[in-house]
Design a protein that fits this description.
alpha+beta, six-stranded antiparallel beta sheet, five-stranded antiparallel beta sheet, about 40% strand, extended
Amino acid sequence: MKRGLNRSLVKGGLILAVLAQLAVLGGLFVYSQYPLWVGREVRVATLPVDPRDLFRGQYVRLDYGFSRLPIPDMELPRGGDDVYVPLERDGDLWRAGRAQLRPPARPPFLHGTILRVAGGEMVVRYGIEAWFAPRDEALRLETRLRDGGVARLKVAADGRAALVAVEAP
């Protein structure tokens, strides 16, 4: 009887461990897809930087005007801090407003992380800095975007953004 009880406990523990792992993976998937499901589409100007990652393949690394920002007045940010950048419509595109260290009252805004602070500016990452594509398409896109392009983003109400497409202007 005791041996059967131990087997049942082990089996139940294994099932619980597998379910917990599936729940974590499902949560990560939902977290990454959330902006695509509920986000508002915005278009922002971008420039390509570099087309290759040895581990993940070909991609176009993107740089935005709001990736390097002046330090907000009256606040002293540090690397690792969250930063929020309100977006303002400017014709067909959206442009960044003044960065702040607290979420704005109204969306849309981008939520980023400060990588470093130096020379009176902050370098910020938003998770929208790379567009992965097959090798030929990535190289062709990099060539077409040499003078700039447009990134289509989906921005959720909490500021998380996902890259939907990269286009020539």
